[in-house]
Specification:
Protein name: EF-hand domain-containing protein
Distance between the termini: 23 Å
Strand content: 15-25%
Shape: elongated
Oligomer: single chain
Helix content: 25-40%
Order of helices and strands: HEEEHEEEEHHHH
Number of domains: 1
Number of strands: 7
Keywords: Signal
Structural class: alpha/beta
């Protein structure tokens, strides 16, 4: 079970980079309309305490439409083409594009809701297992790597080691 949780967390981390004070979400929206919708969605998550920015140089490709026809009841789908992960949005889908973008990006990033509070929990770095909450399971992952160098799980300040500084960052974000 622990391996499955770590795998889910690592998948979501391919789409974001974060520290305790800022987060960058990595997606490659294709086309002006989709870029505008993604930028608006990201702006809605950003706060003074945790600025969230969009990096369009890497991450999953976001497209409006796709090569294959959509089921009319589907707002978006994930397709893997070679080594690229693509999220295709249905232009005639059941949801307005802005809502479909927020919903699919929330699922991709592991957010429990498209709110600044949910983003703070997930993107702050302390949600190590990617379950949308900062709890003792995350602390266990941090402590499993405590004292180790070169690891990424638990290295909240990204100094390539898990130490007291990371434990302090975790403590500032953990709310029992």
């Amino acid at each position: 079970m622990r391996r499955r949780l770590l795998g889910a967390g690592l998948l979501a981390l391919t789409a974001l980079v974060s520290t305790a004070s800022a987060a960058t979400i990595r997606f490659r929206p294709q086309g002006a309309e989709l870029l505008r919708q993604v930028q608006a969605a990201v702006a809605a998550l950003s706060t003074k305490d945790l600025p969230v920015t969009l990096d369009t140089s890497s991450g999953p490709i976001l497209t409006l439409g796709g090569a294959a026809p959509f089921n009319p009841d589907v707002a978006a789908r994930v397709v893997v083409v070679g080594t690229d992960r693509r999220i295709e949005f249905n232009p005639q889908g059941p949801l307005p594009l802005a809502e479909a973008v927020r919903s699919e990006l929330a699922r991709e990033l592991g957010l429990s809701a498209w709110t600044p509070a949910a983003a703070r929990t997930r993107l702050s770095g302390a949600d190590l297992n990617g379950d949308g909450k900062i709890d003792l399971s995350d602390l266990a992952l941090l402590m499993n790597n405590y004292g180790k160098a070169g690891v990424t799980v638990g290295d909240l300040n990204q100094d390539r080691k898990v130490d007291d500084a990371d434990l302090n960052l975790f403590s500032s974000q953990y709310k029992p």
